[in-house]
Amino acid sequence: MVSATRLDLIRPAERLLLGYLGITVVVGALRLPEQPAVAWVLVAHGLCALLVLLAARPDLGAFGRTVRELYPLLILGALYPAIDVLNNFGGASTHDATVRGWEHLLFGQDLSRTWWQSAPSVFWSTVLHGAYFAYYPIILGPLIYFVARGRLDAARRTTLWVLTTFLVCYLAFLVYPVAGPYYEFPRPDAWFIANAPARLVYATLAAGSAYGAAFPSSHVAATLVATAAAFRGSRALGALLVVPAVLLTIGVVYCQMHYAVDAIAGAVLAVAVVALGSRLEQKHK
Predict the structure, then answer these.
(1) Crossing angle of helices 61-74/152-175, nearest 10°?
(2) Quick check: 20 and 171 in contact, CB under 8 A?
(3) What does the alpha-carbon distance between residue 284 and residue 70 come to, in Å, rounded to a whole number?
(4) What number of CA atoms fall less than 13 Å from residue 137's CA on the CB side?
(5) How confident is the model at residue 3, as a pLDDT?
(6) pLDDT at 168 over 70
(7) CA 136 and chain centroid, separation
(8) Angle at the Cα of 225 from the Cα atoms of 10 and 203, rounded to 5 degrees
(9) How far is the C-alpha of 91 from the C-alpha of 88, rounded, in Å?
(10) DSSP per residue over the chain, as a string?
(11) At a CB cut-off of 8 Å and minimum separation 6, what does 179 contact?
């Protein structure tokens, strides 16, 4: 059994991670009879939970303490591909028709399909595909910066806010899968994706995209939350991330990676997470 002292050492972000792992284990167990590959997800998530419990100790040493600040976000690299397994490798029923209905209600068209066609630009394709790939340094950069500077308060805020955002998105992907334009529409014309950033984005997605993970856009939500958390810890760092964050939010639609509704939902989620996180901080001061 885990001692009461060990439980007391588990941080809020780690508690959220354990809660998510518990939920997905239940979901996986329910889907296991029809999807045998889910057994590997159950094992992997069990090991992740064990890692969280092992990390909750006061005698980790300098290296261990640094790793503890970073691992909750790094572990998302294992949780994201598991969504593809839990959604039966593209076999799950998706809700794209409903989301596209919302898109037409708001914009009168499939904006992610028509925008790049109505405003074709090699320049903007290059810039916005580059901004799309900037997602990775935007998410991890502030955390690494704060840990390196010994700003553990800012690092833990960043981890908590960004992790919360991702886990909410991941749960949405499991209960309300939406494939998104990347799967639903034909690829853009060859000239549009013939630049280096676009090729890098498509190669990355081909290697590790999870089916059903479009709504809300975790790219938009996590990017905006990471930028807000960076700004709270360092105005200079936050200001540095504002432009790429805005370009990414636009780019996921223009580059036909997400429906506009996905991006809007991601932005709404980001505002909610930052508002809730800020309110809880004020409450516990």
Answers:
(1) 30
(2) yes
(3) 23
(4) 11
(5) 53
(6) yes
(7) 10
(8) 100
(9) 5
(10) ---HHHHHT--HHHHHHHHHHHHHHHHHHHHTTT-TTHHHHHHHHHHHHHHHHHH--S--HHHHHHHHHHHHHHTHHHHHHHHHHHTGGGTS---HHHHHHHHHHHHSS-HHHHHHHHS--HHHHHHHHHHHHTHHHHHHHHHHHHHHTT-HHHHHHHHHHHHHHHHHHHHHHHHS-B--HHHHSPPPPGGGG-SHHHHHHHHHHHHHPPTTB-SS-HHHHHHHHHHHHHHHH-HHHHHHHHHHHHHHHHHHHHTTSS-HHHHHHHHHHHHHHHHHHHHHHHHT-
(11) 90, 94, 96, 211, 212, 214
Q: What is the pLDDT of residues 221-278, one digit of tens each?
A: 999 999 999 999 999 999 999 999 999 999 999 999 999 999 999 999 999 999 999 9
pLDDT category at 25 given cuts 50, 70, 90 is: very high
Residue 150: CB atoms within 10 A of its CB come to 9
- Express each pLDDT in 73-123 by its tens digit: 889 888 998 998 898 877 778 999 999 999 999 999 999 999 999 999 999
Q: Is the dihedral of CA 162, 57, 54, 68 positive or negative?
A: positive
The CB-side HSE value for 241 (13 A sphere, CA atoms) comes to 28
Exposure string over 211-243, b if 16+ CB within 10 A, otherwise e: bbbbbbbbbbbbbbbbbbbbbbbbeebbebbee
Burial group, residue 198, by CB count within 10 angstroms (0-12, 13-18, 19+): buried
